Amino acid sequence: MATWTFLTNHAHVLLCVADNPNVRLRDVAVQVGITERAAQRIVTELEEAGYLDREREGRRNTYRLNTAMPLRHPLDRDHRIGELLSTFANTRSQ
Q1: Looking at the 3D structure of the chain, how many domains does it have?
Q2: pLDDT digits (tens, 9 = 90+) for 42-89
């Protein structure tokens, strides 16, 4: 496995949620290569920052991304997470 990547674990979690709004955190953790606890922490951080909303439906969560939110780094603040997601969603579906 690579020692570093261009996208953070936060970005990878967003991509997983974008692919499946009903995804289980256990599955997110496996896909991203992190622990389930780390996936939970990232989702909580993203929710607290306004990047996603979580709604409980029975025993499952459904996530809704706020695609108009800006990227957080000062160099990237002119871009929205929707741009990131659409770029990678197109790449992943090919």
Answers
A1: 1
A2: 999 999 999 999 999 898 999 999 999 999 999 999 999 999 999 987
What is d(CA 27, CA 39) in angstroms, rounded to the nearest whole number?
9
The predicted structure's pLDDT at residue 4: 86
- Residues in contact with 80: Cβ distance below 8 Å, sequence separation at least 6, in sequence order: 67, 68, 69, 70, 71
46, 13 Cβ separation under 8 angstroms: yes
Residue 11, SS3 per DSSP:
helix
Whether 1 is covered by a domain: the verdict is no
- For the CA atoms of the chain, what is the radius of gyration? 13
